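for the recovery benchmark. tokens below, seq after
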């Protein structure tokens, strides 16, 4: 049995990027994420926002044991030497009050510049600050750079005020989904705007979350990477030791015997087939 074909062995990456878990929401695929975290390790794990759904929790407390297990799993990885960076999103923006802070070895940062093993620089951010730009794309393109910058500043200010008033964040992804006909256009517009921000930050690429739409693609010379989510698609981005970025999808692996030594031949074959299907 070699390492590659053994589904119960941990895969180690240089970096893992995970976002939009929405712990505290009933839709969070916590069990899948636990399986994933059991079988995937990295030198660095970057949490790219909306890990905890603070707005959901504010309305009604929903925190079953698997939510604790995810938090414990991450803290345990931090204790064992994994560098963990937490970039808050709009659903866990209470964390935005603590930039530069460390919680149990987890660093909190508004943005992060990731140096990949191949020398590429990636701007890592959640992405919600660009909602306003996407909504008003045509107007802002007409008004130019100054208006664009102002719109972002105003959006950040407004969401802070809304938060203080106890109002929920205006959700781009939920809104885009409602506008089915236009959703594709808006996802494209979001990707373009975020890629442009990476260019302005002098980065080669951008890694973000927020719109629950995982993808790796090049947009006008900028590598655009979206981590997806753990509400529907169960995706993560892995950086290999040579700097290659890979989109991982983790849906079919539930039920694979993870920490058992006495796995039968049939179980092994099934697990192998499932894990290959999931990859
Ligand atoms: Mn978000």
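predicted aa per position
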């Amino acid at each position: 049995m070699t390492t590659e074909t053994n589904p119960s062995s941990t895969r180690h990456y240089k970096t893992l990027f995970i976002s939009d878990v929405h712990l505290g929401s009933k839709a969070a695929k916590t069990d899948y994420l636990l399986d994933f975290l059991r079988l995937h390790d990295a030198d660095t794990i970057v949490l790219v926002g909306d890990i905890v759904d603070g707005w959901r929790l504010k309305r009604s407390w929903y925190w079953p044991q698997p939510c604790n297990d995810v938090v414990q799993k991450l803290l345990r990885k931090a204790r064992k030497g994994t560098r963990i960076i937490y970039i808050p999103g709009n659903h866990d923006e209470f964390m935005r009050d603590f930039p530069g802070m460390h919680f149990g070895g987890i660093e909190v940062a508004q943005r992060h510049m990731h140096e990949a093993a191949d020398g590429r620089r990636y701007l890592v951010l959640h992405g919600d600050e660009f909602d306003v730009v996407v909504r008003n794309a045509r107007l802002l393109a007409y008004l130019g750079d100054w208006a664009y910058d102002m719109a972002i500043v105003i959006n950040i200010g407004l969401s802070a005020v809304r938060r203080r008033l106890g109002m929920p964040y205006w959700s781009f992804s939920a809104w885009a989904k409602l506008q089915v006909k236009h959703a594709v256009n808006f996802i494209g517009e979001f990707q373009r705007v975020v890629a442009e921000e990476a260019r302005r930050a002098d980065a080669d690429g951008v890694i973000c979350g927020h719109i629950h739409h995982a993808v790796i693609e090049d947009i006008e010379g900028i590598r655009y990477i979206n981590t997806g989510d753990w509400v529907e698609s169960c995706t993560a981005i892995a950086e290999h030791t040579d700097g290659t970025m890979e989109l991982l999808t983790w849906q079919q692996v539930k039920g694979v015997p993870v920490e058992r030594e006495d796995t039968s031949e049939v179980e092994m074959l099934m697990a192998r087939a499932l894990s290959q299907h999931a990859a």
